[in-house]
Amino acid sequence: xxxxxxxxxxxxxxxxxxxxxxxxxxxxxxxxxxxxxxxxxxxxxxxxxxxxxxxxxxxxxxxxxxxxxxxxxxxxxxxxxxxxxxxxxxxxxxxxxxxxxxxxxxxxxxxxxxxxxxxxxxxxxxxxxxxxxxxxxxxxxxxxxxxxxxxxxx
Length: 154
Hints:
Layout lengths: L1 H16 L4 H16 L4 H27 L2 H4 L6 H4 L3 E6 L7 E4 L2 E7 L11 E8 L2 E6 L14
Parallel strand pairs: 3-5
Antiparallel strand pairs: 1-2, 1-4, 2-3, 4-5
Helix pairs in contact: 1-2, 2-3
Protein name: Membrane protein implicated in regulation of membrane protease activity
Keywords: Hydrolase, Membrane, Protease, Transmembrane, Transmembrane helix
Pfam families: NfeD (PF01957)
């Protein structure tokens, strides 16, 4: 029963850390619980816990981390939020450090100025520097013809 409790506690802790590390030990604890259910002695249970935890950390975690890379890092076509970052937007309602509204590819987005000292009036063109949650952080649209981003993004 102790292994099951440990496995559940580690799995719940993973929800708060999102590092994909504690879940590996939760899997080891649940494997040890399986060994205990089969009547294995405590020493064997501990070896199962250590072995399964090590195998998942060394085998599964690198694969998970590789799949978590962004599309830009992996050379794939970006989609979702990654596709929005770097695009041009039209200001619909005044955008400042606190609030605003822009139109990005036909969709309405809440927006804030990436630089707190900048303000944008309706009709201005801006560039999406970053997306945080459902809010686009924007900068004046001063992308050079070569496609370079403003200094703050580099």
